[in-house]
Amino acid sequence: MIHSTKKRTPSRAARHALGLALAIAGFSAQAQTEAPAPQPMAAASAPAEAAPAAPLQTRLRFNRGTYKPGIEHLRVVRRENTINNVAGQVALNVAFAVLSGGVGAQGFSKDDLGGTTLEELKDDPLGVNPAMSELNDALSKVATDIYRKRAEAALATALTDGSTPEEIEAARQIPKEADTLLLPGPWHLVYENLLGSDELFRLKFGADLGRPGFMRPPIECRYQSEAVAWARWQADNWQLLREERAKAVEACTKFIAAAPEKRW
Q1: Which ranges in 42-184 belong to alpha helices (H)?
Q2: CB contact at 8 A, 249 and 135
Q3: Digit-coded pLDDT (tens) for 116-133
């Protein structure tokens, strides 16, 4: 007996599932083919070139000169300082008159009195003599420009006059310290009127460029504020003193910087 066999065909659902699987496989292969290849890691960047060295600055050398220790900080000259000095001066004049047959001793100015240090500003930079700080900084920039020009001129000469390598190297050097000294002038609050009971004080500041010499006086700068009541000087944590200090530094910087270059 012969049995006939009937070939089974996949159902519609099976065919649909198979087609979906093939499509997914094709998309996956295409995605892998089109995916960009990983980029090689960038080479480590070369280290940045070292910044050029900051130019050397020529500093002015502060020297107290003939002033007694204490000029480095703000001092206050009050009426009693003059009264005490007058008593001593009268006794000195009498002694000189006796010894010299009537020639009296020389008088004095209240600006020459030492006064007393302000305890409130003893450790505050506001009380430091500007000739040692801000004024010195500002004038050192001027000195640096002047000494740099001198070094450039000296180097140009050394390169053409047969100088040795050592002499050429020495010519290009800019000194760390200027030849000319910066000397202090007054830095104090001075009472305005000896008589009366007002509390008016005037800020006085000064500085000199160079020592006095024969036929060559120093470059002198002197600044003074208006006479102001003591209470105003103290107000708002010495705000007026800060403002007048800045004005004094600006005025003396402008005045001394205008001095002929040969004086530096």
Answers
A1: 79-100, 134-158, 165-171
A2: yes
A3: 888 899 889 999 999 999
